[in-house]
Amino acid sequence: MYVILALVVLLAAGLFFLAARASLAVKEGRRRRGMAARLAAVAVQAEETHRQRQEVAESGAALTALIPAIQQAKEGPRRVA
């Protein structure tokens, strides 16, 4: 009789342990899904920012190709007396 009672107690403790681990796993999964969604949103925003900066750089390069940059004198800065 006592053996059966001990087995029932051990079985109940094991089930409680498994239930606690399962609830922690569910919480962790929810947290990771939330982080993944936030990371995806930040990645999209970063790609958009990168694309805009790249367009600005390309337009600046195109403008420089049409209008050459003013070159400095090779002797050094000009002096005004």
How does this model look, in words?
The longest helix has 65 residues, at 2-66. By secondary structure, this protein is an all-alpha fold. It has one helix at 2-66. It is built from 1 helix and no strands.
Report the order of strands and helices.
H
**End-to-end separation:** 113 Å
The main pleated sheet reads as: none
Low-confidence stretches: none
Residue share in helices?
A: over 70%
Key attributes of the depicted protein:
81 residues; single chain; 1 helix
Write the layout of secondary structure elements.
Blueprint: H1 2-66
What is the structure about, briefly put?
The protein is an all-alpha fold.
